[in-house]
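Q: What would this chain look like folded?
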Amino acid sequence: MDLSRYTEPLSLTPLVLRTVIEGRPDTWLDARHAAEVYSPREVIAHLVLVDRDWGWLARIEKILDPAYDEDTPPLAEQDYAKQRSVEELLDEFDAVRSMKVEQLLKLGLTESDLHKSTTDEEFGTETIANILAAWVTHDLYHLGMIFKSFASLWTEEIGPYQAHLNLPNFN
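A: My prediction, written as structure tokens:
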């Protein structure tokens, strides 16, 4: 089975992040398009912690082997983002994501594996295909959050174009 539909975008996320983030000033890295969303710096920390500690891959492995058990520590993106430079976060995300994609490929998933499921307290019934699609979508959602935060830096300057770009409701 060809997993590239999932692994290709997952493998590209670190490169996209590095291209968009590296060399940006703190005003860009700490911008927020809404009060209660992650800043771009916190998005990177979030992606590192989700891949490293929460684990999309762990959810898949639990479906394949119900005896598989892994504790999920709470995520603290803001603290993690403050403890590391953006370059360190980007390097860590690149390493963690590469390792996770490699581990995913080593599972040797088949077409029938994609339909295997479990019932989760929070998410209900989920299949391996659901998890893979959610992993890719999660990346894309957070990349969008970064671009929205960058765009919000010009909200006041664009004057009458705010309404046309839906910036007052840019969520």
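The mean pLDDT is 89.
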